[in-house]
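Structure ticket #2291
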Amino acid sequence: MLLDIFAAHRHQFGLEINMGRLVESLTLPASKQRHPALLNAIFLWSCCLSRPGPLSQYENHYLTRTLDSLADALRQPDKTVDVVQASCLLSLYYFSNGRMLEGSYHASAAAALVAQFGLEIGASAQQNYDLLHTIRIESAQDPMEQGERILAFWQAYNLDYCWSVVLRKSPVIRDGRYVFTSATPSYSEDYEVVEGGHLFQTSRPFVEASPVSISNGYSTLALRSKASALFQRADRLSSSLVSHAPPSNALREDIQVLEHAISRLQATIIPPHQFDSIPCDKHSLVVIHTLTHAAMILLYSRFSQDDPASYDKCLSSTRSIVALIKHHALDADLAFLDPIVSCCWTLAAETLLRELETADAAWPLVDSSEIRNEITTIVYAMTTLATQFPLFGFYAARIQERLSEL
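Resolution: structure written out below.
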């Protein structure tokens, strides 16, 4: 029953795994089964998804079991992929509940493991084995297993890159170290018939908007990974600005290149008015659109006070997020949005709060009700989603407090 509950939402939480194989593994000898760390993390999320139903009372039980079983799994190199997947699920669980330090710890652990074992190409340390290596994992047995390793990498990558922005820290998976050509992330079932998949450039070549990087990798998972990279890169560029000093010509050029990359990615994504034609991907498309608009806000927010063009770009992206919330964020089938969108919506709310402050100061007699309505739209959506994920409620309360002061 718990597996069935989770299976309907597994894509929404980044776990790309063949559920048929997972169920079949339960009939195998214990050594051949998926590790209890992964199973307990899945059961934990099933209980969380059942809030406020009776199953939710078992959350603490499965949280404890997940943590205990992770310690055992780390002693078994052949369960590395299970550890990565479980750590990602556990990290997202903590983030969704506003427990940022614990979420950061497990996200970083997952990212460190995929980096160490080269899971971005479905590889193992065995392929580069020498006498100094003391740990390794066996080579994948078939395309499905190789595909799952690749997908585990992208699960950890998205967590690392998105939440490092929120946590104000550097990602564990560094662009400078990982300028790699990696198999395009696609759904796990695709690896039943496709071995290896198409290739596309990620990290630095992608951010520089190389034609090959934008033209390939149209799967929803590939688009999500690209959006995560742009979101993190926008924050990094913005953070490199020195206070009260004009940006260098090189930095201005980097910003223009990144803006172009964001715009090109947005042009490849199905527009919001067509989401209903592919309901199975609607959740992912909302997240992808939100991340790209938030990336644009991050990129230009530090210029917005002094540069009208930058201000307009921030405001345009903010209003695109508000429109997305109005049309899709409260759909019944999107009750479990990735909690990273709460952080992106907060960025949008901050832009509107600045707009409201400016309007009230410059034109006190002008009706600012439209701006207040947009902020209220964000707060209402976040308050609604807080039933499942308290992080939404935390940010909604902060926005509401700021709004009440204006």
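Closing remark: The CA atoms of residues 264 and 385 lie 31 Å apart.
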